[in-house]
Amino acid sequence: MSILKLDKVCYRYADAASNDYVFKNISYEFELNKTYAIKGKSGSGKTTLLSLISGLEKCVEGNIYFEDKNLKDMDLDKYRSKNIGIVFQSFNLLTHLTALENVILSMDISKTYKKEKKEKAYELLESVGIDKEKANRRVLKLSGGEQQRVAIARSLSYNPKIILADEPTGNLDKETENDILNIFKKLAKEDNKCIIIVTHSDNVAKNVDNVFELTKKGQ
Prior knowledge:
Blueprint: E1 4-11, E2 23-30, E3 34-39, H1 46-53, E4 61-66, E5 69-70, H2 76-83, E6 84-88, H3 99-110, H4 117-127, H5 132-135, H6 144-155, E7 162-166, H7 174-191, E8 194-198, H8 202-206, E9 210-213
Parallel strand pairs: 3-8, 3-9, 6-7, 7-8
Antiparallel strand pairs: 1-2, 1-4, 4-5
C-alpha cells in the first residue's frame, strides 16, 4: 500500500504561458520500506516535484495524497513538521553550531522531544556514524560526508515517515556517496521509511529499489 500518491500532477510557473508546463500528468506511487531515485534532464522539474511533495508548492492540476489524504485538505505546516524530512545537497546546516546543536534545534522547532533531547540527538548522530567527539564539533570542522550525515540525522529528529533528498551525494566522492546510500537503505529497510532521492548519479540509481524517470509530459 502506498504512503504517497501522485495523481495526474501538473505544474507550471505563475508567469508561464497557459500551455507551458514544467511537467504534466505525473502519476506515481511511493511505499514505505523502499528507496526511490527520481531522475531526469536538467530543467525537468525534479526539485520542483520535491517541493510539491513537501507541500511547499501546490499543483496547478492533479492531486498528491499522503496516507490517502489530499494535501490540499491538510495542515501543511503540521504535515512537514511531522512526516517529511528533507536533506539538501549543500547540507543547509547552521555552521556556527555544533552537529549536536543542529539536531537539537530541529527537535525544538518540531516540538517532538521535550525531555532527553540531548541523549536522543547523540543517538541519532551515532546511527549515521557521527560519534560524540564529532557531534560536539562545529559543523565547519567536519568533512562534507560528515556534514551530510549530520543533515540526515537532523532530518530524522522528528521521526518522519518520508525522507526527501535533493542531490544528497552531489558534492561527495564515490566512496562517501556509497556510505550515504547505505544509510538511506538502512533507514528504508530497518526503520520502515520511504526514501525519495533526486539525483543525476547513475550509481545512486543502481542502488535503489525503484527509479522514476521524470519527463515534461509525465509517464
